[in-house]
Amino acid sequence: MRDMKIKFLNKGLVVAFAAIAIQACAPKLTIMEADLDVPEQFDAQQDSTNTADIQWRTYFTDPYLIALIDTALSNNQELNIFMQEIAIARNEVRAKKGEILPSVDVGAGAGVDKVGRYTRNGALEATTDIEPGEEFPEPLPDFVVGAAATWEVDIWRKLRNAKKSAFTRYLSSVEGRNFMVTNLIAEIANAYYELLALDNQLALVQQNIKIQSDALEIVRLRKQASRVTELAVRRFEAQVLDTRSLQYDIKQKIVETENELNFLLGRYPQPIARNADTFVSFVPGVVKTGIPSQLLENRPDIKQAGLDLEAAKLDIKVAKARFYPSLGISAGVGYQAFNPSHLLSTPESLAFSLTGDVVAPLVNRNAIKALYYSANSAQIQAVYNYERTILNAYIEVANLMSKEDNLQSSYDLRAQQVEALNQSIEISNFLFRSARADYMEVLLTQREALDSRFDLIETKMQQLHTWINIYKALGGGWD
């Protein structure tokens, strides 16, 4: 009869467990997949040689620039802050791993208990037939020492998927750090070459001040000889003053650019070591863009977006597992006695327990559904972000490739313009001295020549910026 009752009870537990499992079934959702199709090539040539494979120490050859980048990679505060984010993500992985393993606690305790006479326990103690000298102590001490363990059996891989999701986000944070390194290197290189451009502009202005000052002296002599009027002298003086004021604007920009670099290097303002003479003669190397599919492996931001998407998919599995029953096991073993002298008596004072429980949501599952739907929306969001990051990377490279070609054509034409205007300065000065041209033609020619030289330096700086940014856009610099 007893065996029949046990079999009936076991069958009842199985049926109840099955009913709970059926009741706990999660709603069906469609997992959205990212579209990873990209064009086969950037231009007519399909060459897998990629500049992104070059390390930044080889790509940038200026020793002053390399020293600045080295300092920034050690001292930049934003980068160091992000390194702590990586440490936090790594510790999150350790925490999720700990949830999978059983939790074991060791402890000891002591207490005293006095029950009322007219209570169940008090009446029981009073009516128990105990020989003289063997009465219950009053109050009753209690001493215990032992270990207790709890463990959630990961039937539906909820805990393992949570750990895997945390590990994937840790890898994502590493790629985020790589993307920050890429941007930091590009930002320092851009600021450095902008500083060299400003140095060359300042030297050009000071050179023009000398030329214009010499022209002013000639005009003053011609005025004394009654060859020109006071108006010509004043116009030449005004041009010299305007050019002299221009140098202070450039000096201020130099200070601000130096301090921008110092901020990126994590230090207070100080002079930036550099060689401005290398700016004009420096010729950027040829950039090989490779094929678009290489962006998925070289760009840290794309890899980060892909890892975020993978983690979001795992989060859906974790949220789905919350609908199903969870099995928990708890156990304890130790010694317990009311007299310390008997605490370690074995087996008299040995105490142990072992329990298991199955828990599943049955009535109010709205909170679990909300988390499940939110996880699905986050996964769809991650898909769109992944696709957007890939598209943005491709467009960046395409724009910079076009800009590189157009800037080279523009630089060649501006160089010809500068050469023509330099010759026109000599011609206008000769004609002015021979009274075949008025002072306005000389002034206009000098102003146009100065502007054209400024434009040439500006175009050169844009070329270098494009050379740096296309390296970053291809995913170079972080390795």
From TrEMBL:
<comment type="similarity">
    <text>Belongs to the outer membrane factor (OMF) (TC 1.B.17) family.</text>
</comment>
<keyword id="KW-0812">Transmembrane</keyword>
<keyword id="KW-0732">Signal</keyword>
<dbReference type="GO" id="GO:0015562">
    <property type="term" value="F:efflux transmembrane transporter activity"/>
</dbReference>
<protein>
    <submittedName>
        <fullName>Efflux transporter, outer membrane factor (OMF) lipoprotein, NodT family</fullName>
    </submittedName>
</protein>
<feature type="signal peptide">
    <location>
        <begin position="1"/>
        <end position="26"/>
    </location>
</feature>
<dbReference type="InterPro" id="IPR010131">
    <property type="entry name" value="MdtP/NodT-like"/>
</dbReference>
<dbReference type="GO" id="GO:0005886">
    <property type="term" value="C:plasma membrane"/>
</dbReference>
<dbReference type="Pfam" id="PF02321">
    <property type="entry name" value="OEP"/>
</dbReference>
<dbReference type="InterPro" id="IPR003423">
    <property type="entry name" value="OMP_efflux"/>
</dbReference>
<keyword id="KW-0472">Membrane</keyword>
<keyword id="KW-0564">Palmitate</keyword>
<keyword id="KW-0449">Lipoprotein</keyword>
<keyword id="KW-1134">Transmembrane beta strand</keyword>
